[in-house]
Amino acid sequence: MQGFFCLKISQKSLSTFKKCNINITLISFLLVIFAT
Predict the structure, then answer these.
(1) 2-27 average pLDDT score
(2) DSSP secondary structure, 1-36, as one string
(3) What Rg do the C-alpha atoms of the chain give, in angstroms?
(4) What is the C-alpha to C-alpha distance for residues 4 and 11, in angstroms, rounded to an integer?
(5) pLDDT number for residue 16
(6) In angstroms, rounded to a whole number, what is the distance separating the alpha carbons of residues 10 and 34?
(7) Which candidate, 31, 30, 24, 33, places its Cα nearest to that of 5?
(8) What's the pLDDT at 33?
(9) Taking CA 31 as the corner, what is the angle to CA 28 and CA 36, rounded to the nearest 5 degrees?
(10) pLDDT value of residue 25
């Protein structure tokens, strides 16, 4: 949920995207762990 929220904001601010990009990477990494 937070990842999609950051993606929408990132379209308006690149600096925000850099911060949210870290969160998205962590979220996707956790999803891989739970998925396996």
Answers:
(1) 63
(2) -HHHHHHHHHTT-HHHHHHHHHHHHHHHHHHHHHH-
(3) 11
(4) 11
(5) 59
(6) 26
(7) 24
(8) 81
(9) 130
(10) 78
